[in-house]
Amino acid sequence: MTFDWRGTTLRVSENRDFLAFAFSQFLYGEVTGIQCGHWLYRAPDLDAAQFFARQATEELSHVRAFREVLTRLGAAPQKAHPVVRYLSSGMMPDSFAEHVALEMALGEGLVLMVMYALADTIDDPEIVRIIEAVAVQEERHVDFGERRTALELQKNPSLRSGLIGQCLVSLSGVKLLARALERRAGDGPAVLAHLPEFVNALIAAAELRLTRIGLLKKPLASMGRVERTALMARAITGGALGWMVPRQRTKLLTETYLDQL
Ligand SMILES: [Fe+2]
Ligand SMILES: [Fe+2]
């Protein structure tokens, strides 16, 4: 997941505006960690509940961490980009399987790679130390997402095509965000010259992850436009019309804990 930036760096003294923008996106993403509370209440087992309880405190400590980075940069936190807002909270998953696949394995996996990229290029050792401390905890979140997605798919293989569609929507969001970044880059940091290549690497890493956890059965490149569009359309309308489909209520832990002890 490490990318070769060919010696280009992000200098706090010169690239303050770009860094303030980047860390404001992280700040928003970390605040969406409050979603852990939703999944703690609806956790399918004690193991997941314990994980979400710990994750919630970690995500809230990341809010403090990125606030500290912005203070170090001497920059005020900004409103998050609409695509970031949509990807991290607009697509609030309907089920535990969607949460672990989309938010944790895919979403936090993408974020983790961007964190590595920033840690590898920023010229301020204290900011790098803060990012690396956060990244260690994010690795655990991604790992949980991967393991539990694989398990959900083993239990219910029919979830696969719906989840792939939602992953495709997220990945097109990533491309949109990258294009927006390129547009605002102007004569910004030299690092951004490698952005298109980095986005390809980001998507390749996501594809490898989705393949290893059993979600993708064939390369994304082998999917035709019609197949992709159909999967994505289903993911979007499925989400929008989801309230019309009667859902089976997931049992709460208070009803199932005795079977798990
Ligand atoms: Fe986090
Ligand atoms: Fe996380």
Features:
Ferritin; 10 helices; 0% strand; binds fe (ii) ion
Q: What is the element layout, followed by pairings?
A:
Layout: H1 16-31, H2 35-41, H3 46-73, H4 82-90, H5 96-121, H6 125-155, H7 160-185, H8 195-212, H9 225-240, H10 253-260
Helix pairs in contact: 1-3, 2-3, 3-6, 5-6, 5-7, 5-8, 7-8, 7-9
This protein binds fe (ii) ion (2 copies).
One fe (ii) ion is lined by residues 59, 108, 138, 141.
Overview of the molecule:
With 261 residues, this protein is mainly α. The chain has one domain: Ferritin. The chain has helices spanning 16-31, 35-41, 46-73, 82-90, 96-121, 125-155, 160-185, 195-212, 225-240, 253-260. Helix 1 packs antiparallel against helix 3 (46-73), helix 2 packs antiparallel against helix 3 (46-73) and helix 5 (96-121) runs parallel beside helix 7 (160-185). The longest helix is centred in the middle third of the chain and has 31 residues, at 125-155. It is globular and about 55 Å long. The N and C termini lie far apart (38 Å). The structure holds fe (ii) ion (2 copies). Residues 30, 33, 59, 62, 138 line the site of one fe (ii) ion.
List low-pLDDT spans.
none
Largest sheet: number of strands, sense, barrel closure: none
Helical coverage, percent range = over 70%
Evaluate the radius of gyration: 19 Å
Gross CATH architecture: Up-down Bundle
Average pLDDT figure: 91
- CATH class reads Mainly Alpha
Structural domain tally: 1
Structural class call reads mainly alpha
Please trace the helix and strand order, writing H or E for each element: HHHHHHHHHH
Ligands in the structure? fe (ii) ion
Relevant CATH superfamily:
Ferritin, core subunit, four-helix bundle
Which range does the strand content fall in? under 5%
